[in-house]
Design a protein that fits this description.
Layout (H helix, E strand, L loop, with lengths): L4 E4 L6 E4 L9 H43 L18 E5 L16 E5 H6 L4 H12 L1 H8 L9 H19 L1
Antiparallel strand pairs: 1-2, 3-4
The chain binds zinc ion (2 copies).
One zinc ion (ZN) binds next to loops.
């Protein structure tokens, strides 16, 4: 036999008696109020998540642009295509961002790369490594290969990356 129990309404905070163990509100108006509140909260969270995605995209665009400018005089880090090759140039990560999110905005880990190596040869990593060792030295190369602590960047971090690379790009372009 089910006994009625005392609960506190999640909307108006008053105590109420119910047979329904799942009930969260004391009345229909309170249940509607609660549902509206939850919808508003969900929407706000979705907006926030979306905002972080947008910031991350913007931060990555600026970082990549900086890398291509920094390496303007270089050819492809992997296949040595010359700088006057008229295909598309990318900023290619050595250690993948998916597996190493902490290296997403690490300048040692990202270099100008031709779209062929970046898109079709998975970064052409064997050759990337050889050239990278020449460019930054074995110590810095191996530091990238050590598994770092995973980090989770927040909106504030992306704002900081955006500001940093806007200013670095400005310095290179002028
Ligand atoms: Zn209530
Ligand atoms: Zn290449």
């Amino acid at each position: 036999m089910i006994k009625p129990r005392q609960k506190r309404c999640k909307f108006c905070r008053e105590k109420f008696t119910t047979f329904n163990t799942l009930a969260q509100a004391c009345s229909i108006p309170c249940a509607i109020g609660l549902a509206k509140k939850k919808a508003a909260k969900d929407q706000k969270e979705a907006f926030k998540a979306n905002d972080v995605k947008t910031l991350r995209r913007k931060a990555q665009e600026l970082f990549n642009k900086y890398i291509r400018l920094r390496d303007a005089e270089d050819g492809c880090i992997s296949c040595r295509k010359p700088k006057d090759w008229d295909g598309q140039w990318h900023a290619g990560h050595y250690m993948t961002v998916g597996a190493n999110p902490e290296l997403r905005f690490n300048e040692d880990n990202c270099h100008k790369q031709c779209s062929v190596c970046n898109n079709y040869l998975s970064g052409n990593l064997g050759r990337y490594r050889k050239r990278l060792e020449k460019k930054i030295g074995l110590d810095r190369l191996e530091a990238l290969e050590v598994k770092g602590k995973p980090i989770r960047l927040r909106a504030d971090d992306y704002h900081q990356v955006i500001a940093t690379y806007k200013s670095k790009i400005k310095q290179l372009v002028k």
